[in-house]
Amino acid sequence: MIDPVELTRELIRFETINPPGNETPCAEHIGGLLEKAGFDFAYHPMEENRANLIARIGGGSGGKPLCLTGHVDVVPLGAAPWSVDPFAAEMADGKIYGRGSTDMKSGVAAIISAVVELAPRLAGTPGLVLVITAGEERGCQGANFLAKQDPSVLGEAGALLVAEPTSNRPLNGHKGVLWVEGRATGVTAHGSMPEKGENAIYKAARVIGKLEKLKLEEGRDLPSALPTLNVGWFHGGMNINSVPDEAKFGLDIRMVPGLIEAEVMETLAKIGGEDVSFTRFGYSAPVYTEPSDPWLAQVREIAADITGERHDPSIATYFTDASALTAAYGYPPVCILGPGEPDMAHQTDEFCYVRRIEEARAVFTEVIRRWCRL
Q1: Which of 73, 321, 341, 350 is catalytic?
Q2: Dihedral of the CA atoms 356, 104, 22, 127 (nearest 10)?
Q3: pTM higher than 0.85
Q4: Which of 5, 44, 278, 363 is deepest in the core (most CB within 10 A)?
């Protein structure tokens, strides 16, 4: 039996900050545990030292396997100083501290602990497929890479369980994301004679002011949480004593089912007019499973029984690898459920509650038991 708490600490100690990622050593550590448990597995590198891992056990009897997935890359530490070593996996007051403790090495550890315990009993059942990815934090790079390979690489799955941070609350989907760059151009001139130039920053600023007030949900019948728009970065000008002839900014737009990418881009173009042009440079689709889906309802009941907490259906604000994997698997039902604290993701002094990791392991174990009819 693998202790999910100790495994969480082991995984945190692998420095997998993305960029550059360097996920291979962490993936190989997980692969070694799965090999001992009898899994068939393969590494699928997308770049040097950036391996994805796919592992299987059972299968071929009574239906498609259950897919459990998580990523092992983490975000940078940020500018604020940490009060703890971000890769020491220190424990205090019922918490594990460290980068990735919440997002989402605790979720991966809970998966591995559950599947290794049940592995000896999975022959002759629908079985499991584990997809452990690299590069999720920068647009689901690993999952998209796997989805573009021969279909035999991912194989089949009848349902998808994503162990992203939800405090073990079952979620029936997540928002998607549309990343867009806005660009304004002008005419440069000496800073002492601005009337002879055309200031690109002013143009961009006027459009950004309009975007702050934009309500993407107006006039739409949206079945879930509302979309959002955020200006995440802004760059303009070369030096203080010149009129800038170019300004750029980045938009993070969180998409929901019912919001069409092409229509959003058309709306942006109208707002930008002659001042700002917009270019799409990233997209991950939203994911949504009807709350009435029988498997999803079963997972909700299992989680409620184990955690003692019942919640109404809702979707995650963030995106996950399910954006790529759901489509690759033919749109099976999806549940996002993991031990991490959503509010601690990407934060300084990130932590995860120990009890949540133990709960997640118990939930995953029971979900697998039901799926494989053990």
Answers
A1: 73
A2: 90
A3: yes
A4: 363
The yes-or-no answer on residue 73 being catalytic is yes
Domain boundaries, the chain: 4-174+287-372, 176-284
pLDDT at 220: 77
Instruction: Write out the two tokens for 247.
Output: 């300004």
**Residue of higher predicted confidence among 62 and 49:** 49
Q: Please pick, among 136, 164, 275, 321, the residue that the annotation labels catalytic.
A: 136
Is residue 19 reached through a cis peptide bond, with omega within 30 degrees of 0 on the bond before it? yes
Q: Identify whether 35 is a catalytic site residue.
A: no
List pLDDT tens digits, range 94-141: 999 999 999 999 999 999 999 999 999 999 999 999 999 999 999 899
Burial 144-177 (b: 16+ CB within 10 A, else e): bbbbeeeeebbbbbbbbbbbbbbbbbbbbbbbbb
Burial of 263 (0-12, 13-18, 19+ CB in 10 A): exposed
Cβ atoms 288, 245 nearer than 8 A: no
| CATH tag for 4-174+287-372 (out of 3.30.43.10, 3.40.309.10, 3.40.50.1220, 3.40.630.10) | 3.40.630.10
Which residue is listed with tokens 């039996």? Answer: 1
Give yes or no for residue 18 having a pLDDT over 90. yes
Residue reference for tokens 């151009």: 185
